[in-house]
Amino acid sequence: MSRAQRIHVVAAVIRNHQQQILLARRPEHAHQGGLWEFPGGKLEQGESPYAGLCRELHEELGIQVSQARPLLDISHDYPDKQIRLDVWLVEAFSGEPHGAEGQPVRWVNQQELAQYPLPAANVPIVNAARLPECYLITPDLHSIVDLVPAIERAIDSGQRLIQIRQTQWSEQTYRQASEQLVARFGDQVTFMLKGPQPLSLPGCGWHLTARQLTHMAANPESGTALLARCEGPIAASCHNAEELGMAEQLGLDFATLSPLLPTASHAQATPIGWTAAAELLKGVNMPVYLLGGLKPADCSLAFQHGAQGIAAIRGLWPSAN
Ligand SMILES: Nc1nc2c([nH]c(=O)n2[C@H]2C[C@H](O)[C@@H](COP(=O)(O)OP(=O)(O)OP(=O)(O)O)O2)c(=O)[nH]1
Ligand SMILES: [Mg+2]
């Protein structure tokens, strides 16, 4: 079914200064009744998504939205309804949100979101709400001695999701370095680790290569068992619709899509480009970072093209001075 034929619902991720997210409880008699939701509702005929979002949040919460941007746009088939959930991140609003239609509302810590009973469609929205705008991938470095101070600077500059990608290191060196990094910085940042299987380090995620992803998609039973061993988020490197489809099918938390633009490190690869990337992302129900030749200033373009944000090595790596 095409997106145009679905019931178009706009919904909001709203954060307060403590980084808590606002949930509301759906009335018992409603579709998906009694479950918690991100406030919002159905677009009216001829209404733009932004206008619909502002109207719904005024009706349901009594607030005036003054700034919002796209976060994630997904499709979901319930047995009785096919919906498109067009989720926005509210960046500025006035008024104190309250249950203007008598519904309970609650500010919830990001880590506790998953404990609330939410509609099935909301799993990727919770991931998008928790993931940052930028995904830093480390460049190849000589040793852990070089890595620690750079990671410290990256965290100081606001990075919260970091892939440790050291293609030259032995498995043993990689594991020791990861242990050190987690012990030192694990409470401030989520590390995404590479390798043949997830390293059981507290809170760490696992980032699969496209090759591992393809293998796992072909052997879903052993794949699912491996995935279950990982405590943190699971992601994969994707380059086309097929790989994005496999990542979604396996229920991964997010993906990267590359190469968006030409880069020195992958000079032979054909870049996807912004327009084709936006087309690819329309079919994906999962947060995706665009990767390849991007820097933080490209984040808003990435949001407008349906991405979670940008991933980068050089574009996000802090300079030594
Ligand atoms: N607002 C919202 N709706 C969600 C979420 N997850 C999810 O599956 N839905 C579904 C439930 C409904 O089928 C649909 C939203 O419709 P709604 O009942 O809130 O619509 P509305 O606010 O315009 O209410 P109404 O006028 O139809 O009573 O989307 C979510 O997080 N937020
Ligand atoms: Mg509603």
TrEMBL record:
Mg(2+) binds at G40, E60. One of its GO terms (biological process) is DNA repair. PROSITE patterns: NUDIX, NUDIX_BOX. Keywords: DNA damage, DNA repair, DNA replication, Hydrolase, Magnesium, Metal-binding, Mutator protein. Gene3D superfamilies: Aldolase class I, Nucleoside Triphosphate Pyrophosphohydrolase. One of its GO terms (molecular function) is 8-oxo-7,8-dihydrodeoxyguanosine triphosphate pyrophosphatase activity. It catalyses: 8-oxo-GTP + H2O = 8-oxo-GMP + diphosphate + H(+); 8-oxo-dGTP + H2O = 8-oxo-dGMP + diphosphate + H(+). Pfam families: NUDIX_4 (PF14815), TMP-TENI (PF02581). Its cofactor is Mg(2+). 8-oxo-dGTP binds at R26, H31, E37, F38, P39, G40, N122. Belongs to the Nudix hydrolase family. This is 8-oxo-dGTP diphosphatase. It comes from Halopseudomonas salegens. The lineage of its organism: Bacteria, Pseudomonadati, Pseudomonadota, Gammaproteobacteria, Pseudomonadales.
